[in-house]
Amino acid sequence: MAEKSDNGIFLLMTYQAMSRAGLDCAAIFASVGMPDEPPDQQLRRKNSPQHQFWSAAEKVSGDPDIGLRIGDLMPPFRGQVIEYLFLSSPTFGDGLERCIRYHRLLTDALQFSLRVEEDVAVLAGLEHPVRHYLECATSVILRFLRHVSEGHFQPREIWFTHQDGAAAETYERVYQCPVRLGMPEGVIRFEPDVLSRSSLTAEPELLAIHEDLANAKMADLCRRDFFYRIENELGSLLEQGTVSLDTLAMQMGMSPRSLRSELSKAGTSYKEVLAGFREKLARRLLARTQEPIDQIIYLTGFSEPAAFSRAFKRWTGETPTAYRSRKQQQNPDI
Within a domain: residue 25? Predict the structure, then answer.
């Protein structure tokens, strides 16, 4: 399974909100190895550092409700294909269904679904192990849904599964509705009538264009997942000394021919993927760890030091020792 990740726009929005709040962004972003500068919104970000990131934010701010506070300061979410899909859909409900279908373009750390129960519509999927991340994301979702409905969307109630949270009046001020904690699922409950509300910006031709774009971006994510799986397997196989196209295909549950074909469709080959992974692994281990070079040679699957040194100099123009010395002088805290 691919590692969970978020669209880079969210980290940029978080940086902007934290700056507006007057927080020490340098200290918070350093906790996950990032510089004190606006993050590149084009880079998709791993979701796994969220616990470390928000723990640092709570510590630096001294605010036990920091996710809620930052969510309240987040700038409006604009300019992504999800917004265009929503606005060009015939109704709010159609737009919401499309957002759910393509939600991976924004994040796959939350899994959304929509249902209607008698007199209430339920948007489910507000579940994440990091409370601050979830409460901040909930603000972004609510603000977006109000925007695309021209203010007609209004939550009736929000449920969270976590037991401990902010004061009831704080939630109500930020979300403009009551919040219930310790519930069996995380959901936004709202009036179902808004689902049938017609969109004033509906445009079938534009909708078709936006769906084509969304499908192309989803295909890009699938390719990313595919190469993530390959790199995971290559790391294990290199350690075992059993790396080959055949063993990689077996680990991935594919035939060698199918794997070769998929790599060819992606414009690469097994040989290129293996070389790229070895280079990336070698660079990371030399720059960020104190692993002995003999161990790095082993982990990258080379049979002898001379072969590793030749390959590394071909990749970087430097010897492994010179590269490590230069990189670790730049970051003496390693």
Answer: yes
Q: Which domain holds residue 292?
A: 215-330
Q: Is the dihedral of CA 57, 11, 149, 216 positive or negative?
A: negative
Q: Does residue 227 form part of some domain?
A: yes
Supply φ then ψ for residue 243, to 5 degrees: -75, 130
**Alpha-carbon span 197 to 1, nearest angstrom:** 38
Q: Are residues 34 and 170 in the same domain?
A: yes
Cβ atoms of residues 319 and 312 within 8 Å? yes
Write down which residue in 165, 196, 227 finishes a domain.
Answer: 196
| Same domain membership, residue 219 and residue 285 | yes
Residue pair 238/188 in contact by the 8 Å Cβ criterion? no
Statement to judge: residues 87 and 162 lie in one domain? yes
pTM of structure: 0.79
Which positions ≥6 away from 100 have C-beta within 8 Å? Answer: 112, 113, 114
Q: What is the pLDDT along the chain (334 residues), one digit of tens a residue?
A: 567 889 989 999 999 999 999 999 999 999 998 888 889 888 888 899 999 999 999 999 999 999 999 999 998 888 788 999 999 999 999 999 999 999 999 999 999 999 999 899 999 999 999 999 999 999 999 999 999 999 999 999 999 999 999 999 999 999 999 999 999 999 999 999 999 999 989 999 999 999 999 999 889 888 888 888 898 889 888 888 888 999 999 999 999 999 999 999 889 999 999 999 999 999 989 988 889 999 999 899 888 899 999 999 999 999 999 999 998 887 766 5
d(CA 263, CA 273) in angstroms, rounded, equals 9
Which two three-digit tokens encode residue 268?
A: 């690469």
DSSP 96-118: HHHHHHTGGGTBSSS--EEEEET
Residue 132 inside a domain? The answer is yes
Residue 100 lies in a domain: yes
DSSP label at residue 29: H
**Do 107 and 170 fall within a single domain?**
yes
39: left (phi over 0), alpha (psi -120 to 50) or beta: beta
- Identify whether the C-beta of residue 116 lies closer than 8 Å to the C-beta of residue 177: no
Among residues 161, 196, 231, the one where a domain terminates is 196
